[in-house]
Structures are given as structure tokens and as C-alpha cells.
Write the C-alpha cells for this entry.
Amino acid sequence: MKKNRLHRDDPIRTEPIRDWEQLFRKPGAADSLRPENVNGSEEVPNESEANDHPWDDAVSHAVDLGYRIIEDQISQGKRIAEEISERTNPATSVGSDVSDFVRRLLQFNTDLGTTCLEFVDSLTRSAEFSQNLSNLVDDGIASAGNHNARDESHETARHNVPIDVVSMQPARVSLELHNNVAIDSICVHGLFDLDPSVPPLTDVAFINSEEDQGYVLNIRVPPDQPTGTYAGVVTDSKTNQPRGTLSVRISQEIKSGK
Amino acid sequence: MVAAVTSDIIPDLLREYGNVTRDALVGYLPSDQPQQRYLYDLIADYPQRGGKMMRPSLCIATARAFGADLDDALHTAVSIELLHNACLIHDDIEDDSEERRGRPTLHMLHGVPLAINAGDSLSLLSLRPLLQNKKTIGPRLAMRILEETERMARESAEGQAMELGWRWDNETDLDDEDYLLMVLKKTCWLATIYPSRVGAIIGSRDNVDLDAFDRFGFFLGAAFQIQDDLLNLVGDKSYGKELNGDILEGKRTLMLIRLLRLSNSEQRKRLVGILKLPRSERTGIQVRWIRKMMDEYDCINYARKFAHGLAGAASHEYTKIYSDLPDSRDKLFIEGLVTWVFERT
């Protein structure tokens, strides 16, 4: 059976319609543009009226509705995109980003500093580390020939050997011990001045003291001991090997505080 | 003679781009795996059944119309087709459909649990080609396409939720605007808007205003969907799904919404009562009555004209986008899709 061909009337327009809003209008909108309706009330047909002209109205209704929906969708998409952009665009959030970066940097430094201090603290509480550090420093000082540059308290702390000096005159003590010294077997036989005629300091001994819970270096300086520097070798009493040096400097300058 | 040219160019390019996409897609389907029987064979089923390949072809053609190489758009085209097939598996379960592309649906063959799992896997598999984009079009464009994919997936899920929700609540107070909004989200984003947008991003290196592609894709996709729904009522066996299946499923098509608004109170009461029933309790007599009522109220013709109007707007938007680009087969293909929508059987 031969199908009937669809025939449409020739279009009224004589040139392309460029104005899209004029091309697709709401049903009946075209009527309002007719001369007889321009000054009158504009009536938009209801659905039952629309059904009287189904071919025209279904098409224009679809296009009009379609544009409204897709324009709403595009606007919605742009709003969402702007929101996302504001959250992610560095240009709009540089202030908060920088402050956040600085805050995190400070926090990092604080954390790192705390960690370092805790690390150093734990090291200084380690007897083995203290001993090694002491020897390392002592070696450096010895190589520089500066045997007399440290005070009493410094020595005590470095060796963990308390030094007890009994002297009417100001005295500065320097104790240097080698690595792995057995503190219970070392001794000092006497501290001598460079001038052989000056009497040595002989009341020098490492004594195990219950009060100090360990060995203490006791030095007693006679009241009439001449000023000068007295030095001696710390030796291991079992092997007779040198284990360090001890010097005591008696000086009037120290007394006067100069 | 545009019509004469496009009548050949549409099937030609659908075949050409479809074959290229399908060949590349096969490379993403795992084979000889321990779970081959229960997963990977199921994943490969729908893609191997054919299909029109309109979505990947639109993506490739858009990219090429803007000057890109085919290979630049191929990964994205494969991803689109994989995701489309994943959605079909889940759609068939949600709609309780029995046929897809002339054969039983996946859940009819293997059961709902395995079909759901295959759909999930296919969805995730569709991400892999998008990651490959980094090598072909660079990380910036690859990232842009991932952003577009996230938007498309969200819009599609919202549209599907709208339609399923309407059926769940037996919503009968709907109008054409509700329908178009649902179709915009459920169909147009994956079928036409997303392929157009990502194709334009690839072809122009993300240097073109994408709003016009939203309009073109929406009008084309909506016309496509209405025609698809019409074919479900008036199509032949080559359509691939059971005739009047949409009525049986209670699907809120433009024709059904029209019927609900035009029918008298007694007819409407009966109609609402039928739609309230579970699918399994709807009878052939009830389906045929609804179909007859659609003819009585001229719902078919109304929907057809509605679709023609949308197609006209799609043509208008096409001109706004493509008039300044050099002539090419791809331009003719995209233009021809507007009329091809109605030439399908």
C-alpha cells in the first residue's frame, strides 16, 4: 500500500528567521502580535484550546518548555561550577591558603624543635653518650693545647666525677680522662710544679664515697702551697697505664676575681 | 543535498567509529580469569550484542569536527560505551525487563545478584580508559574529562531516581515539564550531552563554551528518548525490546503522562489503579487497554510532534555551534543525527 506523503504549506516567511525568541513562542503568543490584539488583552489558550491546534502547539510547547528546562540546568551547572571554583581556585583563596601554610609551618617547626629537645635530653641522660662526648671534646681540647681553659664545675659535669677541693687559696682543676677508664682503679701519685723545688700536691685521690654514690676526686691544698700550676698523670693502678691528666692551678688572680 | 549525504554518512560513521570503539573496548575486557564464568563473561555480554554505538560515535565525531585525531577521543569513547552498558544492566534489573538487543536480559540469564555485580564491575571498568587519557591528551584534559564524568554520573543517577521514585510512589500528577527534566538527567547527560561536551573539550583543548553543547545535547537526547519510547509502542521486532514493555513496566513516558492528564475521571481512576499494581499483576488486557486509550487521545501523535519540535531546536543549536567550523564528514554526521533519530526502527 502506498503511503500518503506528508504535505506542508509553503512558509509565509520570505527570509530566514534569525531571532530565536521570535521563532519559538508560547502557544498563542503570536496572536498577541496581531494588530487587533496589540492594544487588547492577551489571552493564552488553555490546554483544551491547545488541543484544537495540536500540530502547531505540540511543537512550540516542546521547544519553549525545552529551552526553559535546559537554561535552568545551565544556570544550575554554572552555580555549582562557581562554588567548586571558589573552593579550588588559588587566586580566590590565596589569603587563607597562605595563613594555613604559615600555621602548618609553625606547627611543624614547633613539633621538630620539641622532638630535637627530647632527643638531646635523652642523649644527655645516657651515661655512655656523655662519656663519648666528653672524650671527643677532650681530644679536641688536648690537640689545641688548651688544658687549663675549663673551670671546676665544667670538669665535674663532663666526667661525671665530682671533684672536692679543699684549699684556702683559689684553685682551678682540670681533669682529662681517656675513653673507657675504669674509675675504680685509677689513681694520681702527685701533682708537680715545673719548678722542682716547689713541693708537690700529694693529697690527691679518687675515693669511693657513699654519700655521693660513686667515686669523688679529693684534692687537699696545704694553706702555704705556693701559687702555680701543678700537674700529674692519672694512671690505672692495675696496669700502670696512663689514663689521663689532672692539673690544679693555684693563682692569686683567681682569688681577686680578675 | 544534506539529506542524501547524511542518509549514507550516519550508518557509515556509526559503523566506522563503532567498530574502532568496539575493538578498543575488547582490550579492556579481562579474559581467562578465575572468575571468568561468573563475572567477566557477563561483563562482555552486552557490549558483544552490538548496539547502535551512537554515544561513542558522537564523542569521536565532535572531537574530530574540532580538529582532534581519532585516537585522542578513543579512550573516552570506550569509557562511554562501557558505562552505557553498565547502566543497561542495572536499568534492566530496575525495570524488570526481559529482553535487551533481541536476547534475554543479563539478570534473566544469570540471576539478579550476578547481574548487579557485573554492572558494578563494568561501571568501575569504565574509569580505566579515562585514566589512559593522561597518556594521549595529557593530564589537564584527562582531569577535565574526569570532572565531566563525575557530573554526568550524578545527573544520570538523579534522573534514574526520579523515574524509579515516580513508579515507587505511583506518581500520576506529572506534566511535560517533569518528564523533560527527568529525561534531561536520566537520558540526555550520558547519551548526548556528555559525549558532546567531552568531545568538544578534547577537540578544542578545552577552549570552547560548553553551554551550547548542553542545549544541543538536551534537545537531541530528548527527541531520541521520546522516539525510543514511541518505538516501544509502535516498533517492530527489530526494536530489540518487548513491544508495549514500557506500559507493562508502568514507565512514565510522555504518552502516558499525556493520557493521565487528558483521560476522564473514570478512565483516569482505572488507569491509576492499573499503574498501582506490581508489574507481575498487570495483565495483557490492561496493557492493551492503556495502549488503545493512548490512540484515542492522540498521545502518540502528540509525542511525535513534541519530539519533532525538540529536534528542530537541536538543529538550531547545531548551527550555532558548528557553522564556523570547516565542513567535514563529522559535522555532517552530527547534523544528520537529528533526523536519524526518527529514521530508526
In short: The mean pLDDT of chain B is 92. Chain B touches chain A through 26 residues (CB under 8 Å). DSSP finds 16 helices and two strands in chain B.
